[in-house]
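Here is a typical protein record:
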Amino acid sequence: MERFDVVVVGAGPAGSAAAGRAASLGLSTLVLEEHATVGHPVQCAGLLSTGALAECRVSDRSVRNRVRGARLISDLGGELAFDAGTTKAVVVDRGELDREMAAAALDAGAELRPKSQVRRVGDGRVTVTGPAAGEVGFSVLVAADGPRGTVARSLGMARTPLHLGGVQADVVLREPAGTHLVEVYPNAAPEFFAWRIPVSDRVVRVGLCGETGVPELFSRFLARWPGGVVHRASGTIPLGTMPRTFGRRTLFVGDAAGLAKPTSGGGVFTGVRSGRYAAETAAECLESGDLSDTALASYEARWKGDFGRELAMGYRLLGARRRVTPGEVDRLLRAFGDPRVIRSIVEHGDMDRPSGLLARLVRMPALWTVIPIILRLGIGEILAGDGAL
């Protein structure tokens, strides 16, 4: 039976980041990818902050558009719009991004086996089907196999508590449109939101995410933009981390651990960072010869120390989101449209770490008109939370 120091299940950004870092630290590393081609099928809106793109450590080859700001539209007349005048986010071809990250992992010394599906995880070994079927031994397993992956199920470990369904389509517009602002529609999907992301002046990515009635809500939302649908995709967004993201010589990263941001559903930033933390933890455990759960727990301490507070705040905000009415959304957007508020958003906004901006905003006199809504939703308590997950 073949053996590797580290076996990574899944070649998305989190898995490739883990594999590349592990290989660069001198660990024998194998990546098992169930699909024939890395980056296919695509299940992502493809909107990344500039910081998230930098974390991926790739070229600009996958970038299709650069975004400077956003419009949040209530559909009841209220709107918040801002344009930072400089790039705040990029729209990427996720397939291209994934393939470039996987190539970087191979350059670092990792081995990739496509069409390799993990069927079972046992005592230090995985059973794989595909062209290289059989058993592969590991010292540390990194589970990067998504929100409904095989690894957690095979090990009998509790998985993420909530999953949202998402649907999106690329639409070719009949007339050219602006390319610099993302549009967000909170009231189009009461449990989350809908979006319209410009890929080019002729193509927009229209999507919606929620818990219930997603296909019907999406059909109504898509009808707002007549044109030719050239690509459809659907997927699952995990919200809420696993109770424990380590155990039995296994580390769970990215969506497999439930590390998507509750404020947006995005998981590249947290996935890539967690992947590298997993690789570094594996290297330390192998060097010390201690692969116990106690030793592996340092992985969870790492990612919690980095972005755990942001996730905890985001989960509480998601709870508040479910309590807000469409009319309150409208009032909030009108209040947030104050020039002083917009200036603060432009200067201090951070897609990956939004807590600092929110703390500033709730103290601004310009928002005193919506204090009753803020108090009812418990925003103050959310910000004052201890950050525990």
